[in-house]
């Protein structure tokens, strides 16, 4: 299965999201995915196997548990493939970040010039009538 076919599935993407926080047991991953997607434990196990077979995760036995962790190599391959296409979205994201920062700055300036809240309606800073 091609790596993008693997990534096309929302359950598998969610498993990768969970494992991005660090290694997790099969039970932990399964509980989260079952709760979120309403699928069965065997269905989650199949998704974990697909991720393992595609090289996205490694599994290590730990007593009676199986611990899954991300494999950076496969994710780097995906990132390398995407690199030439970043020029299509990075400038827009940079522009969005600039606008968000400008909006925050403008709101802070407006709040500072408005003075303490409640002053316009005859209330003091605690909200009591003055």
UniProtKB/TrEMBL annotation:
Chain positions covered by the region annotation Disordered: 100-130
Entry-linked SUPFAM superfamilies: Winged helix' DNA-binding domain
Gene3D superfamilies in the record: Winged helix-like DNA-binding domain superfamily/Winged helix DNA-binding domain
Keywords associated with the record: DNA-binding, Transcription, Transcription regulation
Superkingdom assignment: Bacteria
Boundaries of every HTH arsR-type domain copy: 1-90
One GO molecular-function entry: DNA binding
Name of this chain's protein: Transcriptional regulator
